[in-house]
Amino acid sequence: MKKIKNLIVGAGLSGAILAERIADEKKENILVIDKRNHIGGNCFDYLDKNGILIHKYGPHVFHTNFEEVWNYLSKFTKWNYFFLKPRALIDGIKATLPFNLNTLYQVFPKSMAENFEKKLIEKFGYNVKIPILELKRKDDDLKFLANYIYENVFLNYTKKQWGLKPEEIDENVTARVPIYISRDDRYFQDKYQGIPLNGYTKMVENILNNSLIEISLNTDFRDVKNEIDYEKLFFTGAIDEFFDYEFGELPYRSLNFDIQEKEVEYYQETAVINYPNNYDFTRICEHKYFLNQKSNKTVISIEYSEKFVLGENERYYPIENPKNKNLYEKYLKYSKSLKNVYFLGRLGDYKYYNMDLTVDRALNFFENQIK
Ligand SMILES: Cc1cc2nc3c(=O)[nH]c(=O)nc-3n(C[C@H](O)[C@H](O)[C@H](O)COP(=O)(O)OP(=O)(O)OC[C@H]3O[C@@H](n4cnc5c(N)ncnc54)[C@H](O)[C@@H]3O)c2cc1C
Fold this sequence. Notes:
alpha/beta; Rossmann fold; five-stranded parallel beta sheet; 24% strand; binds flavin-adenine dinucleotide
């Protein structure tokens, strides 16, 4: 039987950062296993035959206001300073997203757009994000605008993304989508934004580059758990799977990516275009934009949202609602009865984390519970 001090399940961001912290600060041995044939978890990217870096599990743009998180990752990568400026196909027009003052002029006749712009600035000021629910409470013009954004940008996209019927969508929740009273076309306004200059996989490889860290790929915890004698276990896989679905399955939304090579220099005008109202897919991503790569070919991925079915596809988004939270809490409570077994990451915590929150969670977990 293999003897090891720390076993980490999952070589995604959560597992890699935890391994690095334990190795660097505590100088202890760690074995990191992953059932996939690569490190990086869902941030994994790879160079295709044309030299274009492909985000295998969907477009990943790093953004954060946490200086500590930015500084931590910057020890392992240089950055391509990148701002995501997506568009959405609305009424046949590829319009700026999030909906802002520029979008008004793209989708409405000029006089109408001017009227909306004037009213919005008068009522709310400039450079503010106003939930469309709040617009709906205002006069008729702004109510019309709120309904337009709700129906054309949000409703059908949400239906596709989450596989819901319109009546299942809670309008109060969905109406939190904002209109941005600004001409800033960036999707995020965070202080730090970028793409690792040599890709996410290289960044994670650098994080894991420590002689105290051993990595074993193509290794599922379920197959090896009786062969490894560990003192501490850190599990970044699915918490319900760990407990053999004792209380039932935690639901997830899954995705399917149709990755296609195109014989053109550029396929679309920007990295990500959403299709709220047309087609069955939700969005198309063109990968060469992320690192501004040059090639006379290009690669796109067409993203479809689908139900997660155990054994058939991958877990992507936890479906966070009170019922599922309750179920997760049962697992969490149960997990506390185990000694020296810890859960974290998007699957272990059953929580959607952007990458910066994943990093923050792993750093804080180490500081508060392990150090
Ligand atoms: C489509 C999509 C787009 C995203 N875009 C962005 C973005 O633009 N910006 C942003 O900040 N964040 C984005 N994210 C979030 C980002 O992917 C996560 O924050 C991050 O990947 C979480 O890392 P993790 O290590 O917790 O989980 P994961 O990356 O899922 O890693 C968990 C690892 O555990 C392994 N594992 C699971 N079970 C087992 C087992 N039984 N045995 C062995 N190994 C196992 C898995 O194979 C996996 O490699 C996006 C997420 C998705 C789904």
